[in-house]
């Protein structure tokens, strides 16, 4: 999967916006203002950091050498997917969905209601 395809997939999800809060080299995807995905724009090879449960992160890192703890993030909850190291696009999509769902689950009732209304 390339960056444009990943970007389009993220933006197709309800309530998602993209921002550059950490400078021009880090594209962040947020649902209702909460980050669920980050990808650096200053690397040749596509990398994506996603949130997941600690157990799922350990499982993914054990199964795929191209998945490791995300730089500058809580490695217990965030993993980096290095697409040039053989991470299947299917795994990236599934984990993007999981990250989005985890963040949505943590939203307040009021914000969840706003999201449902979009």
From TrEMBL:
Which InterPro entries does UniProt cross-reference here? YjbR (IPR007351), YjbR-like_sf (IPR038056), YjbR/MT2646/Rv2570-like (IPR058532)
Q: Name one Pfam family in it.
A: YjbR
The family database entries (Gene3D superfamilies) matched by this protein are listed as: 3.90.1150.30
Q: Which residues form the signal peptide?
A: none
What name is this protein filed under?
MmcQ-like protein
Name the species this protein comes from: Arcticibacterium luteifluviistationis
